Amino acid sequence: MDTILLVVIIAVVAVLAVAGLLVSRRRGQAPPADRGAGATRTAPPAEPRVGDDAATPTAEERRTVEDVALPAPEETEVVEEPEAPEIEVPEPSAGRLVRLRARLARSQNSLGKGLLTLLSRERLDDDTWEEIEDTLLTADIGVGPTQELVERLRERVRVLGTRTPEELRALLREELLNQLDPSLDRAVRTEGGVSDEGEERPAVVMVVGVNGTGKTTTTGKLARVLVADGRSVVLGAADTFRAAAADQLQTWGQRVGARTVRGPEGGDPASVAFEAVREGIEATADVVLVDTAGRLHTKTGLMDELGKVKRVVEKQGPVSEVLLVLDATTGQNGLVQARVFAEVVEITGIALTKLDGTAKGGIVVAVQRELGVPVKLVGLGEGPDDLAPFEPEAFVDALLG
Ligand SMILES: Nc1nc2c(ncn2[C@@H]2O[C@H](COP(=O)(O)OP(=O)(O)OP(=O)(O)O)[C@@H](O)[C@H]2O)c(=O)[nH]1
């Protein structure tokens, strides 16, 4: 019985194996059309190449654009409208110089340290006083102020007799402060007025200076200072020479919600300035800041353009402040620029930029002396709130470390 069962199982397995073999052989054979006598062998399918169709084209008729239905609305991508930039809340202006003191100290205190080291020498002979003089000159304080400072220090040290480091530091602090004239009014004039017809007028601040000194940046930063102090501002992009300058100013304005009036590239700067003031009056803004172009290297051209801007603005009311922007890193060159601008317009304040990038902080003294106008603002970095009202005490303290 067992033997019969075994034979039956072997027979069934054998039949299945033969059937399987037949099926697999049939699948591996080429289609009958290709197998006729003389039929060429087709090349094995090649790898698809760039530009090949993904699928074998069908004999279907091509459809025109009109035949193809648009995708259902819910399938389209929703493109968001660009959002209006978020209005920033700038840092209050008071005490900014104290916050930026470390930055000032980093760039300037080689001057203070150098002077204190020299003054602490056992013997203060002529050579040492000469070294003190050289240190002051290297920091761009200028010849006149240097001689004056050294003379006064020399006299006071002689009278004082004994000199402790504390006494010397106090002496130096006092004399440096003296050179900066702390009694000068350093407030940027941003108080508006009233016209003859009794209409409120915004204060108008013209920002002038050679391109590249940080003029546009300073105008933008000043807008932030004013907004931080609760004032409303309109910006005038009267630097029509470079389109990017107007864009740059507009971006600064948008960040604090201040409107920018601009004209076509190469347009008349005076007309942009006029429009900006008009906009300021209509919007009852507190301050209109006008950024001007300083590309002109010939004095006549500069005179024509700046003079015209000022005259045109004055048709609607007085200009409250003309701020000259100077780059502290340009040293004596900055003084030459200052002289040219002062001949063209009446400068009422100086904004000294890039003080973070130079050890020549003495330029503050030199430029004030040169123009008889106070340094009102100092730029201490590229950050939006790195413009500070100038405070002589904080400046000298940073110098002395
Ligand atoms: N480190 C440092 N960089 C500053 C300061 N102020 C301005 N800058 C940089 O100086 C460069 C020139 O500034 P702009 O404001 O474009 O100069 P501009 O005088 O208006 O020149 P135009 O835009 O060509 O009219 C920019 O890269 C500013 O970020 C500052 O206080 N410190």
From TrEMBL:
Membrane as UniProt keyword: yes
Binding partners and assembly: Part of the signal recognition particle protein translocation system, which is composed of SRP and FtsY.
Stated name of the protein: Signal recognition particle receptor FtsY
Protein's job: Involved in targeting and insertion of nascent membrane proteins into the cytoplasmic membrane. Acts as a receptor for the complex formed by the signal recognition particle (SRP) and the ribosome-nascent chain (RNC).
Superkingdom of the organism of origin: Bacteria
SRP54-type proteins GTP-binding domain boundaries: 374-387
Membrane association type: Peripheral membrane protein
Family matches, as SMART domains: AAA, SRP54, SRP54_N
Binding annotation for GTP: 209-216, 291-295, 353-356
Annotated compartments: Cell membrane; Cytoplasm
Reaction equations catalysed: GTP + H2O = GDP + phosphate + H(+)
Family: Belongs to the GTP-binding SRP family. FtsY subfamily.
Classification via Pfam families: SRP54 (PF00448), SRP54_N (PF02881)
UniProt entry keywords in alphabetical sequence: Cell membrane, Cytoplasm, GTP-binding, Hydrolase, Membrane, Nucleotide-binding, Receptor
Stretch list, region Disordered: 27-86
Amino acid composition bias (Acidic residues), ranges on this chain: 74-86
One GO term of the biological process aspect: SRP-dependent cotranslational protein targeting to membrane
Enzyme Commission number(s) from the entry: 3.6.5.4
Gene Ontology MF, one: signal recognition particle binding
Native organism taxonomy: Bacteria, Bacillati, Actinomycetota, Actinomycetes, Kitasatosporales
GO CC entries: cytoplasm; plasma membrane
